[in-house]
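Weekly structure sync, notes
Attendees: PL, DS, HV (note-taker this week)

Item 1: Polysaccharide export protein
DS walked through the input record. Source organism listed as Novosphingobium resinovorum. Sequence as pasted into the shared doc:
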Amino acid sequence: MIQELFRPRTRRSTHISAALLATVLAAGCATQNYPLVDVSEANARASQGMRLDAGDKVRVTVFDEPTLTGEYEIGTAGAVTMPLIADVAAAGSTPDQMAGAITAKLTQGGYVLNPHVAVDVMSYRPFYILGEVGKPGEYTYAGQMSLLQAIAKAGGFTPRANKATVVVLRKSWGGGRKVVVGDPALIIMPGDTITVNESML
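Item 1 (cont.): predicted structure, written out as tokens:
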């Protein structure tokens, strides 16, 4: 059930950071300035697989090497720090690509002979819903969901909300985009910040 998969982090959602507050204010003041996103194209890219980024938690398994096996969180620089091989770039990679990078470092350094490495995602970074919704704040990402499902999880639109378009900030877009609320519905990604502005009517 969607309600079971997406639980708001209530303790932190009441303390929205200054950066996120600035995002809300900027989106509210300049909604018309954001380019309109092609939802079908954005969803097609999302279906190609999740990319890791800062805040994601992964489990690295190096078979038969318990000292190298463990759980790691990708830091703000986009890397994890492992024994022997130090920093391993992770941001922008798939789990399989990250496993390949670890394998290469272990092999090139002569640390492990024919290493077999697996990377599994334990949890992705959260996403945020701000502005004119019932329960704005931070939400755990635990599986694919649509824009409308995310808004519903955040308590739905307030009576003052602009129900036609929202602003979504996504790292891979390099900034905010205006998104039409409708069909097809945008697939939400980890790290997204959704801002529902007040209707001008």
